[in-house]
Design brief:
GO terms for molecular function: 3-oxoadipate enol-lactonase activity. Pfam families: Abhydrolase_1, Abhydrolase_4. By secondary structure, the chain is an alpha/beta fold. The chain has a single domain (about 1-260), classed as 3-Layer(aba) Sandwich (Rossmann fold). Helix content is about 45%, strand content about 20%. The chain contains 11 helices and 8 strands. The protein has helices at about 70-85, 95-105, 125-140, 145-155, 155-160, 165-175, 180-190, 195-200, 215-225, 240-245, 245-260; strands at about 1-5, 10-15, 25, 50-55, 90-95, 115-120, 205-210, 230-235. Strands 1-2-4-3-5-6-7-8 form an 8-stranded mixed sheet, sandwiched between helices.
Amino acid sequence: MQMISVNGVNLHYADTGVATGTALVFLNSLGTDFRIWDHVVPAFEDRFRIVRADKRGHGLSQCVPGGYGLSDLVGDVEALCDALGVDQVIAVGLSVGGLIAQGFAARSPDRVPALILCDTASRIGDAATWTSRMSMIEQDGLGAIADAVLERWFPPSFKAAHPAAYSGWHAMLTRTPTEGYLATCAILKDTDHTAETKALKMPALCLCGSADGATPPALVKATADMMPNARFVEIPEAGHVPCIDQPDAVIRAMKSFFEEHGLV
């Protein structure tokens, strides 16, 4: 276990791969920890430094009182990279992790030669949807929404084919600290990054599962279309977390993107 204190928050992270050079920094979605990347990371450890971290209030990272925003989550990633001596970052973000990646790239474009944005957008959902979800959790707990959330994460075939794994991901979600989950929901409710994302000029790969029930392909493509150097790739038979249900397709798309832009 690797832990570090940045911005007054203890973060759980992993630092693997090659010792120097550009790092792939993997940023997780709402209600997950960095294990979601377990089937993707090994494909890149021979050529990149790999940094993964649980955002505050998730996984083994410290759960602090709410009232923080997207800029604070971006600041945590920035401070972590500084502490580890990582300068150049290819940010790989899923869902809210993709918003954090967009925020990091907007704040420090000179540090981000490229972006991988998975199943994310410049604006995810609307205020009414997030307010409703938060109210349900406050009243009945995360367990009350878990089945509906996993239906958006995975296509129906995944549960039937991988019942044990499905149970494990369900447990990961329901064991997320409620305070951390709610604080991140509040960030999603309040965040519209459209203006900043339109200004991002670095190459970007926008991936989306064809069966994503949280950020559907049309939404992700619209985000790709607003960036001048972005490419959209739809992953067949994948849900909201293709790094779990279709990792080989994610790896192929990433490798092709890296080769296209001379990043390997």
